[in-house]
Each structure stands twice: as C-alpha cells, then as structure tokens.
Amino acid sequence: MIAAIVRRARFFLLCAILAGGIAFAAWFADRQATTLVGAARVIDGDSLLVAGTEIRLFGIDAPELAQVCTRASRLWNCGAEAAETLRAAVAGREVACRPREQDRYGRTVAICHARGLDLGAAMVKGGFAVAYGAYEADEREARDARRGIWSSSFDRPATWRARHPRPDR
Q: Which of 18, 64, 111, 135 could form a disulfide bond with 131, CB atoms 3.0-4.6 angstroms apart?
C-alpha cells in the first residue's frame, strides 16, 4: 500500500516537473520572439522606432521636442537636446527592445539596450529624462551632479505636456 502511494507521488511529481519545464520553455520562447531588434530611428528623447514598431522607453519621461528650459537666465531647447542625446546613444548600433506593455496611445513600452547600454538608464543618468516608475537612483545622481535638465529650471515633461496639449492626442 505504501509503495503504491510512493509510486503515485513520484509519478505526479514527475508530471509536475515536466509540465513546469514545458511552461518555462514556452514562456522563454515567447520572451525571445517578442524582443524587437534592429536599427533605431529616434523620435524624441524617450521614443524611437525599432523594427517598424514605435517604442516608448520604459521608466522615463524626457522633455518634449518643443520644450525649452532655462539655464542661467537663457532659454535652451532641452527637448531637442534630449532627442539628440538618445540619437547619439543609438547611432549605428543595433537596438534590442524587450516589450513590457502598451501605453494609451498604442505604443509599445519597452526596455531597450544598444551594445549593452540600457537606454532609459543612460537618459536619466545623463540628465535628459526624469524617472517615471524606474531609475530613481539614476535621477538622484543626475540631479545631485546637476547634469542636463537638472542644471536648469524646467517643467517636468508631464507638466509641460498638460500646458501644451497636442491636437492629435
């Protein structure tokens, strides 16, 4: 009787391990299949086009293209500089993006890397984006070092967008 119970328990354990292995393999294959890889075209400081898909970088919010900041009583186009910083980070490099979700505009929100560089972290650490659900330590570092937008007066991008709504969104 005990031997039969032990055999049955071993059988169920083996089935559970096998089912778990199959589920893991399917999950891993799905993760690999959804990674978008290719050359990137920068749209603005936190958005790019990769493999025909519009990507919004996860965890950051960069100044809008038309946004200006004030440094030493002078205006500077911090939005255009943020876009140029992202452009320099991806220039000539293959970009790999791991999708996480879709935003309300239908864009794919993803964590993207170029030659091992986490683009979201680089933008925040360089002071050309604020943390938006991730990269808080990188934002603190940029703010303390007064890099990029932290060397100036600026509206957070979300505040700027609220004051300057786009007619198409």
A: 135
